Amino acid sequence: MNDLAPLLTPEGRALLDDVRGTAPADELAVATRLRREHPAELVSAALGQARLRQRAVVKFGAEDAERMFFTPNGVEQSTRASVAAYRAGRLKSLGVTSVADLCCGIGGDAIALARAGIRVLAVDRDPLTAAAARANADALGLAGLIDVREADVTEVDTASYDAVFVDPARRGGRGRIFDPEAYSPPLSWAVRAALRAPHAALKVAPGIPHEAVPAQAEAEWISDGGDVKEAVLWFGGTAPGGVRATLLPGPRTLPGRGLPDPEVRSVGRYLYEPDGAVIRAHLVAEVAQEVEGGLVDATIAYVTSDALHTSPYATAYEITDRLPFNVKKLKALLRERQVGILIVKKRGSAVEPEELRRKALPKPQGPNAVTVFLTRVAGAPTMLLGHPA
Question: Is the pLDDT of residue 115 over 60?
């Protein structure tokens, strides 16, 4: 699919309605039927778009996804709507009324910004991607707030905008790009663009090294439903050098307080598993202080405590057993306790959870459930068994 224009015609839109929800197993029969009355290329494009819309539901929700237009890369790389809405809300709270959205992709962030009442210049150099962004602004009734421009972002004048948002491409021909200077455009260019604006937000990979975060930026790691989605570097109206973890839905934000690393202590009655955004933001110490706990190992982000505390930033488990790593002993214990559901988590272990699950519980033994943590305690490979507290 190299041109969206045929799908935007009345015939194309009618075809999109006709193929909505088509299951993969039914595509050949549907295509054969439709090609009797429509050009084969248009039918193929409509079915391809229907597949992309089905994939996009998880990010945009069914109501929006079924009206929007996507490219394969656009579905893969676009921001989840809940995360984009949170970021747009934060820009709105800073008094931002206009944003230059550079590397806008298919327009997911521009849509969230416009729905927050912010005027957007959405820029992408790829013609098909820019066309999709323009079609999406129109499809969702936001064309009055979103001006889509096909251009090289490095050549766009952003001086008249309150804020700049940059989402560099972090995928290449060989997959994910981990070096921020290999982003397109490079992080260094995005930082220079950010420093020229009153406010700015740069979307980067959640695995960005802390030492790569510019001193002028506040770094925020965001998770949604427990999955880490992205990191954002904020400039202007924020705390330079600050760090925070934000959990969605909510939002709930844990700011860094510069605490020293927690002490290592013996395993207590409860184990706390910090949210991934908390771990990425290096804020495990803040969680440990909140639950009056310490680490099970100096290199492992599991917190243990003798007391049960409710925290939105970590999931608590009550620990019932501590065993040296031994599959036979684990298998016997699970059989004795009539365990039929085994949840395996690991941190600091080379053992694959599915491999352990297959060996330790080849057949369900009963109605009970156990969570086993494969980790290290004071440097020794250990299995901690328990259940959600």
Answer: yes
What are the structure tokens assigned to 215, written together?
């001193």
Of residues 102, 106, 78, the one with CA closest to residue 202: 102
Task: Categorize the per-residue pLDDT at 170 as very low, low, confident or very high, splitting at 50, 70 and 90.
Answer: confident
Instruction: Please report the pLDDT score of residue 173 as a whole number.
Output: 61
Q: Report the C-alpha gap between 260 and 141 in whole angstroms.
A: 50
How far, in Å, CA of 316 to CA of 295, rounded? 14
Tell me the whole-structure pTM to 2 decimals.
0.91
**DSSP H stretches of helix in 94-126:** 108-115
Quick check: 374 and 356 in contact, CB under 8 A? yes
pLDDT for 176 equals 76
Q: What is the pLDDT of residue 1?
A: 54
Q: Yes or no: say if 218 and 233 are a contact pair by the CB < 8 Å rule.
A: yes
Helices (H), the chain: 10-19, 27-34, 40-60, 62-65, 72-77, 81-93, 108-115, 127-139, 187-195, 276-280, 284-290, 327-336, 353-360
CA 76 from chain center: how many Å?
11
